[in-house]
Design a protein that fits this description.
The chain is an alpha/beta fold. It has one domain (3-200). It is built from six helices and nine strands, in the order H-E-E-H-E-H-E-H-E-H-E-E-E-E-H. The protein has helices at 3-21, 46-52, 66-77, 93-101, 123-132, 180-200; strands at residues 25-28, 38-40, 58-62, 81-84, 106-109, 136-143, 146-148, 156-158, 163-168. The strands form two sheets. It has a seven-stranded mixed beta sheet with strand order 1-9-6-2-5-3-4, sandwiched between helices. The model has no long low-confidence stretch (mean pLDDT 92).
Amino acid sequence: MSKLVLFLEKYFAYIFVHLIGITLRYKLQTPAKNERVLYAFWHRNIIPLLYLHRNQNVVIMISSSKDGDIIAGPTSLLGYNVVRGSSSRGGSKAMREMIKLARKWTLAITPDGPRGPAKKIKEGLLYLAYFTKLPIVPIDVEVKREFIFNSWDKFRLPKLFSEVKIFYGHKIFINSKEEIDAKKEAVEMEFQRIEKINKAR
C-alpha cells in the first residue's frame, strides 16, 4: 500500500469512526478505571472502544501487518499513542516500548490479535502485566445493532445510533512469573463472567 493511499485512508477512517462514534449511545455498566491499568479487549471490539477512550492518555499496541497499517493511522488521530508490533514474552521491541510507556500511560491490547484464534488469550498479555505491574482489566462490549464482517474475529461495526454496553471487569494483578498460568485462566474466566452479565442486562 502506497504512502499516499495510507495518508488518505488515515484521515478518511478517522472521520468515518468519528461520525459513527458521535451517534452511538454508550451505556457503561461499570465505571472505567481512573488509574493506570492494562485494558484487554477482543480484537473485534476495536471500533466502539476506539471512540469511547479517545484522548485519554492510552497506549495501544497494533500489529506491524498491513491490516495494522490501516488501523494505526486513524487511531493516532483519535489521541492514542500507537506502538507497532506484537506482545511476545518480553523480547520484542514493541513489548519493551509498552513497558517503558506504562510508567505514565494506561495500556491497551487485544490478547487474541492480530490473527487469532478469536477470544483466545496469548501469553504476551500476562507477561506485559507482570513486567509493568499494571492490573489487567478485561472489557466486554455488547452492540445492539451492528454489521459483522466475515473475518477470523467476526469484526463488528456498530450501526448509526446503536446502543453500546460496556462492562469493565475486575482488576487482575500478576506478581510473579509462577502465577502466569493460573492468572491466564483467571483472565479467561473474568472475560466469560462479564460477557454473561453484560448480555443479560
